[in-house]
What does this fold into?
Amino acid sequence: MAQELLRLATAGSVDDGKSTLIGRLLFDSKTLFTDQLAAVERASRDRGEEYPNLALLTDGLRAEREQGITIDVAHRYFATPRRKFIIADTPGHIQYTRNMVTGASTADLALVLVDARKGVLEQSRRHAFLAGLLGIPHLVLCVNKMDLVGWSQERFAEIREDFRRFAMKLDVPDLAFVPVSALHGDNVVHRSASMPWYEGAPLLHHLEEVHVASDRNLIDARFPVQYVIRDHGRDFRGYAGTVSGGVFKPGDEVLVLPSGLRSAVRAIWGPGGKEVTEAFAPQAVTVELADELDVARGDLICRPGNRPHSGQDLDAMVCWFAHRSALAPGATYTLRHTTRAITAEVRSLEYRLDVNTLHRDESASGLALNEIGRVQLRTRQPVLFDPYRRNRATGSFILVDDATNDTVAAGMITGPATRVVWHAATVTRDERPTRGLTVWFTGLSASGKSTVAAELERLLVAAGRPAYLLDGDNLRHGLNADLGFGAADRAENVRRVTAVAQLFADAGIVAIVSLISPYRADRARARAAHSDAGLSFVEVFVDTPLAVCEARDPKGMYARARAGEIRGFTGIDDPYEAPVAPELVLRPGDGDPATMASAILTFLDR
Amino acid sequence: MTSTYELSHLDALEAESVHVFREVAATFEHPVLLFSGGKDSVVMLHLARKAFWPAPPPFPVSHVDTGHNFDEVLEFRDRTVRQLGLRLVVGRVQDDIDAGRVAEESGPRASRNRLQTVTLLRVIRESAFDAVFGGARRDEEKARAKERVFSFRDEFGQWDPRNQRPEVWNLYNGRHRKGEHIRVFPLSNWTELDIWSYIAAEEIALPPLYYAHRRQVVQRDGMLLAHTRHLALLDGEHPYEATVRFRTVGDATCTGCVESTAATPAEVVAETAATRVTERGGTRADDRVSEAGMEDRKKEGYF
It folds into this structure.
């Protein structure tokens, strides 16, 4: 019985019913123990409350119970036959940003609650923004207290659209919406009888099914050396650590940084000396190299053709944690990054971000508790890093105050601050006659993507709007002729097409991309790149069942894949990860390609 | 079929714990592992050995002995330490009582549980330990649910729940001044069921107390206490024989057992998966002192 682990962080203000929802999840999934429930009932009675206050389950500290507030993150555990869950229950209103960051840094999924009566509040937006900033790939918006709005389908749709419009500005690749009543248990563990109009799954079912395996970076091999293990009796010298990206295999040629020495992997040992044939994140292993090299804690092992950035100047987003001091340019801290500790100076504060309005205050001179800003750091020695978006492990750091030993900030590296300045154009986007964007079609081979995409291009051009179709198959004749169909090549394919689409969109053209793009993580990176550049990105999922695609098989590809002539064919022996929250979904019953294309046009014009 | 690159939850938990052990060994000068012979500390020791294979764990183990321990557990402790060639530092509560540093509770319900904090802090101070591995799990108790993996303790060993260091990603901050120390909890994210599943999967040996056996017990305050030489009987209490096992093992005067016929790790896993009472709920008198019993003890320096 090999269950997968899912880490989730909850957010939302106390009044939105967060603790009740967690209590309900535990209770209905039969994880809540009878003595815990009895303790809650007893404590509720003592406080003169009529019903068992499930918030008391998660508020464990004396001061929390006395004041009825949540002070710090609590961790809760529950399991179903399919998965084990770790909930980081983060406080809603006190010291929100710091606590949310603390609880959510390792989360796979963020659960944000809104009260159906109040709708999307500032707080919901802030939490969604933080989830995006922290690179949490999946977000579920639970619209709670549906019982208090008469189980209204219209109200739910209104909130969903409101939030979706806001989320388009964020880097949240996977967004789901569930209408619930935590108090009554509707759509939490069990399907609600009061909301027959809701076609989706109850919350727990979604948590069990959400696909997280592809969220990890399996491309960029990274192994920060944590500890050197020597056993003189056996003449053993191994480098212990946790794989933080990519896959390592015995025989791999590797590069040790910062020394630049090369060697090969002789063997990889799992904990306790179990020899393994490959190691991937987040496995803790011990690596033996073929050559006797001087390798120490703080070094990083990677592949020669795929190195991380190395530099002393970092550009990063930081969240300030300290209440006793503020971040100010000129101050120095100890920067803890992977397995290294390096002195770093804050060179400049580029801007302070208002997490409620997303406004950038460039006149800010410092960051106080719970504030987020973009900074430039200079480190005493080079740091080996990747942008946080590409790798949460090699892109994150903390700052430690040497005077107090406090952890004063969490940081996410945006990239090197090498000042390779973007060549500034004299024409701004607003000055161009048309505004561009990217419409990204994804779906199985023969799902009908390209047909609809071509139809959309025709409609746009006919209406006098510049548009250009970037078709995956066509691009493989030129730009991507050197790429194959393995996961790494597919990722590179998506990266290049993304870059080209961005250029078109920036030029004022509607870039229409038609690409199977089977992996969610690749599409998430495309979306994030557009978001960084301030360009709109509309994901259209052409949801044609495999059987239909296979029956169509215009190029005979499925037949060849079934016959074993083609390996790694999407839908046959390679997975297709369907989008969970695309802007648009097209199904075979939605009409002919022209009808579908005009539906997209209507969406774009909204 | 290529690899799916998915880790089972036990493998993920093991990797996380191994990472913590190595991090401490790499960044502290004098770590120590609290080892009582109880199941969580046995799992900790097992993980520590796996983390540093093929070398032995680069730190000693320590046990705070209340003097009221189960004989079977002490035997297991000493045998394990001998077989693995570990250095064991024992702190005896009796020594602190004899020296007048603590006063023993009196009366039939007297317990030395609370006194062990003083002994623990003395051992840490005397041996200048700077990192102390404890087997506490967040699922055990509501105050422990708020605990960090690296828990800063001041020079008095105190835990300040309102002023904990934020802990993000797996970047742990173990910085401290001389005299201060860090409690480290590699099993933070494990549940009781995880522990048992791991014991079964890895075939880890435990003291026999953890499996069903016949013994003399006494009913007290809704708990089943073992009738040992450490337990003074109250009026009207009559020991009787029952088939029991222990879910948690500590001081014999405040650790209860449960009626059970589970005699193998697999049977205990099945029983644990089905139980509707928490590990500490039915078996630990020390948690029943007040709503915040554990929190108060942790603030004093308990682990």
